[in-house]
Amino acid sequence: MKPVLHFISDDAPARGGALQGGSGDGTLLDAYSQAVTSAAEKVSPSVVKIELEREGKRGWRRWNVGSGSGFIFTADGYIMTNSHVVSGAKKISVVLMDGRRFDAELVGNDPHTDLAVIRINAPALSYVNFGDSSKIRVGQVAIAVGNPYGFDYTVTAGVISALGRSMRANSGRLIDNIIQTDAALNPGNSGGPLVDSAGDVIGVNTAVILPAQGICFAIASNTAQYVVGQLLKYGKVRRGHLGIAGQNIKLPRPLVLRYNLTVESGVLISGVEENSPADKAGLQEGDVIVGFDDATIRGVDDLHKVLTEQKVGATSRLEVLRNPEKVTVEIVPIEKSDTSR
Fold first, then answer.
1. What is the pLDDT of residues 211-248, one digit of tens each?
2. How far is CA 226 from CA 16, 80, 141, 222, in A?
3. Structural domain spans, the chain
4. CATH number of the domain at 240-335, please?
5. pLDDT tens digits along 89-131
6. Closest alpha carbon to 173 in 299, 271, 304, 306
7. Beta strand pairing status for 78-81 and 334-335?
8. Catalytic residue IDs
9. Fold of domain 1-15+31-237
């Protein structure tokens, strides 16, 4: 059976709470248990359950067609979650650990990184801090808190299994620097925090591989912090736009040798939008992009990575192969709109 990447929103949550665990008075906790217990106690009050109301195909509405998790990261009610949890919701409600329920507003949404920020207006909120995901190491303790299958505030623990993974968002774009963990995640965990032993957020839980067990993924906290800054400022993540349609293409070996290229593939331009930056720069169908400023371009994913907010409005250099000469083209990317390719 082929493994399937499954985003872990809960579209049909079961009602949890029927199972109750006992506690042994006087149990001696080892160092691992102490770390997990301490982190869970610190983080859990900041974790929220997100309930959604969406319109059905015939226009009718009902509660809990989708639900997920999130976590408060500021004292004034800003909450991080996954884009796939809140996308398309007509109404968003947030339930706190103490049982209080609040309506939430969508502040910003970025499907390309599967992250979103919502906000509630509530007093006396606990919140968590972001950690530095560049400093985590394979093998260290990782703790997840969320609301899987309606079992609210479930804590699972494991280790960081691998770093630097990549996965595709529902939008088709590649997300880099993904954290792999074996801390158990299930539908309903989406958007909840993955924390270290100090209780700092190192990732945002987002997906599992099915039918495998113990292969779960979280978006790195450093990625999340960058996206948060953009969403709070603009309501979206600003990216550069060239105005081309392109596809990956393998370069003929003689061409690679002729121009001493460091790549063996590039982006073949299959279409150019009228009056776009690409059109104004003179790019043509059939051109192959192999470089952007100082970055090599092996494919469409590489091009997406370099088209950051900093490139918007700035003159950049494209290295292009054209029939079969190598030329340099100056181009000024514009801000990508929601409808841009």
1. 888 999 999 999 999 999 999 999 999 999 999 999 99
2. 35, 12, 24, 6
3. 1-15+31-237, 240-335
4. 2.30.42.10
5. 889 999 999 999 999 999 999 999 999 999 999 988 999 999 9
6. 304
7. unpaired
8. 84, 114, 190
9. Thrombin, subunit H (2.40.10)
